């Protein structure tokens, strides 16, 4: 018997570990038609058959490019040829979204995938992000100065509040490998022209920044960045466990909000104190704080000089005696 192509074997191994807990269930694969998601689809169909799981691919047509409907149909046809069920889902993208059309497309895409998984009763949605995508995410987070949370990159497993479970089995697999997997499998991926558009920061990182780093610092930069993200996620998990234990003792419900003990905040190291503030605001009001906003709130505990309420996204923070009260905006 001919030996299995190494690229196909690598992608299948990565997928096997991710889907093993979903034996007998239904899985949704997000398929764009590109090499990454096409290789993911082929491997998922193969591995799902071993564990008696069903696979449906969801091809989201954003309608942002001429001929996008034909691209979506072609991707769905390739998925069916592999043995998967396939749905093409057309979505409306808000061109006036404050964060731009790319962010609006991402929001619409994830909502469509959530809805598809919910309607099918799927136990998980698989996404085709690779090691290279992870490295790009880490570099973009570093450039924005947005802290350890963004440097953690993408998690291999994540569950939303609504119960949607997202799997990224290919975070240790390179883009070169997924393309080789498609070639060895006789699949023809679609190359999105927007992946070469230099107006997008991610494209500039991919086409310009990473190659310079590889050339000047040596090969393996993408893998090193991905390892950094993994280590930071481990640190964050430990921090989160400590924070949840701490919060139980220092947080109380307040009118229209929540309050935190000033003494407890002041007694904690800055890293814990700032994480507590961000977690309290996010869990109670569903908004994230910038570092500047977080430090201003922290000053209510560590550098109190009578300053008044601080306006934050969706709420205010003010010191009331021995506590900092976070209240919803009226």
Automatic annotation (TrEMBL):
* tRNA(Ile)-lysidine/2-thiocytidine synthase N-terminal domain ranges (all copies): 27-207
Give every tRNA(Ile)-lysidine synthase substrate-binding domain span: 261-320
Which residues are noted in the entry as ATP-binding? 32-37
Keyword Lipid metabolism assigned to the entry: answer is no
Q: What is its main location?
A: cytoplasm
Pfam families to which the protein is assigned, alphabetical: ATP_bind_3, TilS
* Swiss-Prot/TrEMBL catalytic activity: cytidine(34) in tRNA(Ile2) + L-lysine + ATP = lysidine(34) in tRNA(Ile2) + AMP + diphosphate + H(+)
EC number(s) recorded for this UniProt protein: 6.3.4.19
Question: Where does the source fall among the domains of life?
Answer: Bacteria
Keywords associated with the record: ATP-binding, Cytoplasm, Ligase, Nucleotide-binding, tRNA processing
For domains, the record's comment is: The N-terminal region contains the highly conserved SGGXDS motif, predicted to be a P-loop motif involved in ATP binding.
Q: What does the function comment of this entry state?
A: Ligates lysine onto the cytidine present at position 34 of the AUA codon-specific tRNA(Ile) that contains the anticodon CAU, in an ATP-dependent manner. Cytidine is converted to lysidine, thus changing the amino acid specificity of the tRNA from methionine to isoleucine.
Q: Output this protein's name.
A: tRNA(Ile)-lysidine synthase
Write the lineage as a comma-separated list. Bacteria, Bacillati, Actinomycetota, Actinomycetes, Micrococcales
